[in-house]
Specification:
The chain is α/β, with parallel strands linked by helices. The protein has two domains: 280 residues, 3-Layer(aba) Sandwich (Rossmann fold); 201 residues, N-(1-d-carboxylethyl)-l-norvaline Dehydrogenase, domain 2 (Orthogonal Bundle). The protein contains 21 helices and 14 strands. Strand 4 and strand 5 form a beta hairpin. Helix 7 runs antiparallel to helix 8 and helix 10 crosses helix 13.
């Protein structure tokens, strides 16, 4: 059965469908970056809220700013912007169709349709999932990158920007001048202090062309911090087969684990949906939740994925159940990450490690190590390096973290131990690959990438540990290095 609103009644009875009249929904949110994670997470919370008969004036309009977003738009518009979510639980599989998104804006150079929609007074939240590396932040300096070509373009072409942030600034200028007022800009990416980061990007970009507008945005708009969590694999042939087996023709289904978490700072200048009614946590302790999640789950993902790629282990569930890779993750998490993570209401760090271990072990979640290892230049700098710096500052252990960085360097050389090629998997792949080749003989060359590591190369204890592990990986193999760390021998 084709996935369309008019056919929802004919879907199999085992598939949960919207309990609300989608024709009566009106837009309140524009979401930029309509990937799998957004549809399994933020869009799901809103969908369940609509099912409760609440907040039907907060429906989502999807948007994108890159040419590749056009293919996603075409798929979703062909099926009434509906998505089949398939929950993969070890005890069984369930499915539901979500309908909280009601339109998807055209993808055009200059982003005219996006700016026009954002300028409409009914849009009160602009949300983003543009990946950790999409905020134009210099990873070493943690500062806005005003020299990036995209940013320079938008500063000079304010009416026809190429970035999402340029479109936001252009729309806010129209809203200020028309009296429509500000909106909330809500990052839903895995970044510590994501509200602070998106504020920095938007205000700094506006400052380059219109300081008065920048000051108004900084004062009038809201930028709430949030922490998001749900493991959502990429969609491929297996996922398409799963939805087909349900009797549904869906060109863009999404699979996900049986866990979601969304912790949100309650700071919305133009109102918000009642997300807490369907399981979201409104809290002024977002930072504590995100530190636990980013340092244990996201950093743990990198600890697992880089080693697994080198050893040709294809999925995260296979990696965490691998006797050496899994024990490496668990030891690093408990002895080197948890000491730098505080408790949150209802959860101690060691208990959270157990939870993550169970979630990673779910064999039904075919989450590839390649997907998790993508964009290490952003993910290592955002997830692992802050823990390393805390460990160095406090005199705590960091040997496993140094091994994790050595594994990243080895992975970026581009060939697995079985001789197969690791295809480009990072926006900076060419640069990383060239340095990784040199680092095989001169490990210090890797840490000399100050754009990622800052002054870590000047920390002799860490540099020595990194040198040891990278040379050992090359001399005796990844498994030997993992065994040495895990057993202490």
């Amino acid at each position: 059965m084709q996935l369309e609103t008019k056919f929802l009644h004919a879907l199999p009875s085992s598939v949960r469908v919207p309990q609300y009249d989608r024709s009566k929904l009106t837009a309140g949110i524009v979401h930029i970056g309509v990937g799998n994670f957004h549809r399994a997470h933020q869009a799901w919370y809103l969908h369940r809220l609509f099912d409760e008969g609440l907040d039907h004036d907060w429906a989502i309009i999807g948007a994108g700013v890159r040419p590749y977003d056009a293919a996603q738009r075409e798929k979703l518009l062909a099926q009434s912007c509906l998505t089949t979510l398939i929950e993969l639980d070890p005890s069984g599989t369930s499915a539901e169709v979500i309908g909280s998104m009601i339109d998807y804006l055209p993808i055009e150079e200059g982003n005219g349709p996006l700016i026009e929609q954002l300028a409409e007074a009914n849009i009160r939240i602009v949300a983003l999932t543009v990946t950790e590396g999409g905020y134009y932040i210099d990873p070493a300096a943690k500062a806005f990158d005003a020299d990036h070509p995209d940013i320079r373009h938008d500063a000079l072409n304010t009416a026809s920007p190429c970035t999402a942030f340029g479109a936001i600034v252009a729309a806010l200028k129209i809203r200020r001048d028309s009296g429509a007022g500000p909106f909330t800009i809500q990052s839903c990416d895995n970044l510590q202090g994501n509200g602070k980061i998106v504020r920095q990007t938007v205000v700094s970009l506006a400052q380059l062309s219109d300081p008065d507008l920048a000051a108004w945005i900084d004062k009038a708009c809201s930028f709430p911090n949030s922490m998001v969590d749900c493991i959502v694999p990429a969609t491929g042939p297996k996922e398409l087969e799963l939805v087909s087996n349900l009797g549904i023709s869906d060109a863009a289904p999404v699979t996900h684990e049986n866990f979601r978490q969304w912790v949100i700072e309650d700071d919305f200048c133009a109102g918000r949906p009642a997300w807490e009614r369907v399981g979201a946590t409104m809290s002024d302790q977002v930072h504590d939740f995100e530190v636990m999640k980013i340092r244990i789950l996201n950093a743990g993902h990198q600890v697992l994925a880089n080693s697994a790629e080198i050893l040709s282990v294809e999925t995260i569930s296979e990696a965490v159940t691998h006797p050496l890779i899994g024990d490496f993750f668990r030891k690093v998490a408990r002895t080197e990450i948890a000491p730098h993570v505080g408790a949150v209401p209802g959860m101690l760090p060691d208990d959270y490690i157990d939870l993550i271990d169970r979630r990673f072990s779910n064999p039904k979640i075919v989450d590839t190590t390649r997907r998790v290892a993508f964009d290490g230049s952003s993910r290592h700098t955002g997830f692992l390096l802050p823990v390393i710096k805390d460990a160095l500052a406090s005199g705590a252990s960091f040997q496993g973290l140094a091994l994790a960085e050595a594994a990243w360097a080895r992975m970026c050389q581009g060939v697995r131990e079985d001789g197969s090629v690791i295809e480009a998997n990072d926006p900076c792949w060419s640069e990383l690959n060239a340095v990784a080749v040199v680092a095989r003989e001169t490990p210090a060359a890797w840490l000399a990438q100050t754009q990622f590591y800052g002054d870590l190369a000047l920390q002799p204890d860490f540099a020595t540990a990194f040198d040891h592990w990278l040379r050992l990986i090359w001399d005796k193999g990844m498994e030997h290095a993992l065994s040495e760390f895990v057993t202490g021998q």
